Amino acid sequence: MKKTEFVQETKKRLVSRRDALRRALAGEMGMLRAPHEGAVGDEIDAAIATEQAELRSQMASFESRELAQIENALDNIRRGQYGRCEHCGKPISPLR
What we know:
The chain is an all-alpha fold. The chain contains two helices and no strands. The chain has one domain (3-78).
């Protein structure tokens, strides 16, 4: 596979993943902002609800970081820098 084909295929995968992350984050942010439905039953229910909210928050944070990395990679593709080390500028093998 030629480098240009590899970069174009990588770009397609990155755009697809970016779009999926955006949709997921939109849903998670909506759930985090939404008031809790109904009253919490007992202390165990409250603890479970709090834990679930924390897990959603952590997942949103992880997905946000991944989204930023994808945006950076897409920007590198646009600038023709994808596949080069950001520190030394040397080419990075596509197998890596």
